[in-house]
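Hi R.,

Here's the chain you asked about this morning:
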Amino acid sequence: MMRTTRMMLAVMLTAMVCTEVAAQGFGFQRESFPEGSYSPVTNVNRNGYPRVLSDGSVMFRTKAPEAKLVQIDLCGTKYDMQRAEDGTWTVTTKPQVPGFHYYFMVVDGVSVSDPASQTFYGCGKWSSAIEIAEKGTDDFEVQDVPHGEVRTVHYYSKVDESWRPLMVYTPVGYNESQQAYPVVYIQHGGGEDHRGWMEQGRTAQIMDNLIAAGKAVPMIVVSANSNVRSRNGGFGGGYSWQGMQSFRSELIENVIPFVEKNYRVKQDRKSRAMCGLSMGGGQSFYIGLRSPEVFANVGVFSTGMFGGIQGASNFDLEAEVPGMLTNTKTFNGQLDVFFVSCGEQDPRIEYTRNIVKKMRDGGVEVKFNSYPGDHEWQVWRKSLHEFAQYLFK
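And the predicted structure, written out as tokens:
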């Protein structure tokens, strides 16, 4: 009975908000927005709510006359909305940092996606999101430059024993040319999947703009779903070499052979890169650095395995990547690019800085950068933007 009631509440809220959005879109209701506010690109209706105010705070509004309590859950902070006599609920959040933020609407205790927002697969489910604009990030937007393509294709996984999706970015000119291209295998974080980098991460926009400006060489980018169920029924994962084995098999035995069979790509180690964010950063660290016969370029963005998350402490570089500190000359010689990044407000930042210092003190050649922001997509977009400019040159 409780489950049925919650489902009915979610359906009622969706219907009410959709009706309001449709009415605005067809001109039945004219809005008066706060001066200086703008509609984020993540809105379904660009003439509706949410609205980003001039100080970066966000004003939400919805109509739910039968609800007793409506909240906005934005990045883990809940804001109680205030009800007007006509059943309209509003709230303004505190100022938000620029970037992409997941959020939910909570109606009488039921967490639902906001029908006024586009939805994205994040937090382990379909989530609403809001984009807070940042000056100086034009490379993350569609520009008047030649555009590549993003395709969704399927391959058969012998690890998962099922058909699985890949999203593949091919640069402008790929269809007309006969040349072979280098490839980046890019990994999402926990609670996300293969769509993350192409949708939330804006990979195509970043690559199109960098290539058009001559800042990056034309390359293919492959985004796989690393949530792999192994043959024994368990999911591969965990911040350990052993925990990476299911996805390592998936990537090296299934994904890469599929790409090299179906796309014109260079098939030598120096023409392959692996990178990823958070969970995908851990995968890139272990799989990329411990598979030098496969990858000569590795990018690790915002991983928690160095510390800053529960269960991560006392990270032993030599034990995790044998030879990194005891045979450093060979380790360095196997890599063309080794890049690490993290957000400056991310709980992982000091641990990341410390491990990079240990690497450098030991003679490891590693590039490092940090960017304003927490554990979120604006940091990861900037990480890809920088990493891509180092590759295959």
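The chain has nine helices and 18 strands.

Let me know if you need anything else.
M.
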